[in-house]
Design goal:
The structure is a single chain. The protein is of the alpha/beta class and about 200 residues long. The protein has one domain: Peptidyl-tRNA hydrolase (Rossmann fold, 3-Layer(aba) Sandwich). It is about 35% helix and about 25% strand. A 7-stranded mixed beta sheet has the order 2-3-4-1-5-7-6. A hairpin with a 2-residue loop joins strand 2 and strand 3. Helix 1 (about 25-35) packs across helix 5 and helix 2 packs across helix 3.
Length: about 200
């Protein structure tokens, strides 16, 4: 039996920092803090998926901030996945995890979400799913980690758009960079344990 030694490509979706410092980029803020929680090197600019992007690598986790605008994340994520997959041999175990904002959860709540669950109108997730079919990689678990950002009382499109795209408050940024990463790390451990058990069956 192959030794269980999983690796994870973890890609945050959001509009590029520091230009777009908003709740919609919650995934990027969470990854900023995750490097410290996982005790990895800070992000540095490198080329992945044929684009310059911020990457923090260790033998187990490759953290990547998608460099594109949220709504067109898919092609980059697909290229980054395929490139990372080619770097490992056929016996290596590799999982893809998207980290993204979630309006339907309260600020700071972090949940592991099944890949095939509805995007709930999230255009970044829609773009990735349109560019990358998980069914083509049956041995590689694909998953999502959703980070709650709350939502305004009003549900009209203009109010919601302003809420997610306006400049983030210092308080919310602190939650996303200092508290949320610990919960993201726990969800990664949950995913790894689910994967381990599925292979033992």
């Amino acid at each position: 039996m192959t030794k269980f030694n999983p690796r994870f490509l973890i890609v945050s979706l959001g509009n590029p920092l520091p230009k777009y410092e908003s709740l919609h980029s919650a995934g990027h803020f969470a990854l900023n803090g995750l490097t410290k929680v996982l005790k990895q090197a800070p992000f540095r600019e490198t080329t992945l998926g044929r684009q310059a992007c911020l990457v923090s690598s260790s033998p187990k986790y490759t953290l990547v901030q998608s460099p594109t605008l949220m709504n067109i994340s898919g092609p980059f994520v697909a290229r980054a996945w395929q490139e990372t997959l080619k770097q490992h041999g056929p016996a290596d175990l590799l999982s893809l995890v998207l980290v993204h904002d979630e309006l339907e959860k309260d600020m700071g709540i972090v949940k592991l979400v099944a890949w095939d669950r509805s995007p709930r109108g999230h255009n970044g997730i829609k773009s990735v799913k349109a560019s990358l079919a998980a069914t083509n990689y049956p041995d590689s678990p694909f998953a999502r980690i959703a980070i709650g950002i709350g939502r305004p009382a009003a549900r009209d499109a203009a109010t919601v758009s302003s809420y997610v795209l306006d400049r983030i408050s210092r308080e919310n940024r602190q939650i996303l960079e200092e508290q949320v990463p610990w919960e993201v790390a726990k969800r990664l451990s949950e995913l790894e344990e689910e994967w381990r058990q599925s292979m033992a069956e």
